[in-house]
Each structure stands twice: as structure tokens, then as C-alpha cells.
């Protein structure tokens, strides 16, 4: 299996991610993997490789999103904000709380309650 640090055409992939993230309603969240599943594997990337790297690529796209993309609405599959982001993790959590998203005692979002169903307008 080839090793990819980014999708073959990051500009196109990132734009697809940002379009999807823009559809996530206020007060809802989606996971990196969920968004990756909504995008076809880029040309030249087989399904198995995409399954391995897609969520990571979505994470990179979210991290580099323009200011008007609600990046805070994307979390990991456990409903957590990544603590390795330091101060950004705190900001991430505060932005979601401002939208009415509640974190449990273990720092997780109830994905059944706050998870986005993936329906695009």
C-alpha cells in the first residue's frame, strides 16, 4: 500500500471537505472519518488506501480551512476534541459549547445526540 502524506490534489480535496463542513448545522458535529466517507477516493488512490488515509486528509483540510468554514464542528470518531492541539483544543471546545454542544464528564460529545446525519441541503 502506498504511503500518502496528503491527497494527490490537495486543493480539490480540501475544497470538497470545506463544502461538506459548511453544510454541518450549528449545534451538530461530524467526524473526520464520516466526512472522508462522503468523498470519493481521489483519482489514483485505491479504496483501501483511501480508507487508511482519508480521515487524516480531512483533518489536514479542516486545519487549513478558511475563516468562514465552521471547522469546530468536526471532531474525532469518539466525539472528542484533540488535546494535542493545545490552546486550539480549548477554543475548539468553547466554540462548540457556544453552539449548544455539551461535553460529557469524560470530555466527549454524545455523537448520537449531536452527530450530524450527513444530509446536505
What is the fold's blueprint, element by element?
Blueprint: H1 10-21, E1 30-31, H2 32-37, H3 47-63, E2 74-75, H4 87-98, H5 111-114
Parallel strand pairs: 1-2
Based on the model shown, name its key terms.
121 residues, mainly alpha, Arc Repressor Mutant, subunit A, two-stranded parallel sheet, 2 strands, 42% helix, 3% strand
Tell me what you see in this structure.
With 121 residues, the chain is mainly alpha-helical. Helices cover 42% and strands 3% of the residues. The protein has five helices and two strands, in the order H-E-H-H-E-H-H. It has a two-stranded parallel sheet with strand order 1-2. Helix 1 crosses helix 3. The radius of gyration is 14 Å and the shape is globular. The model has no long low-confidence stretch (mean pLDDT 92).
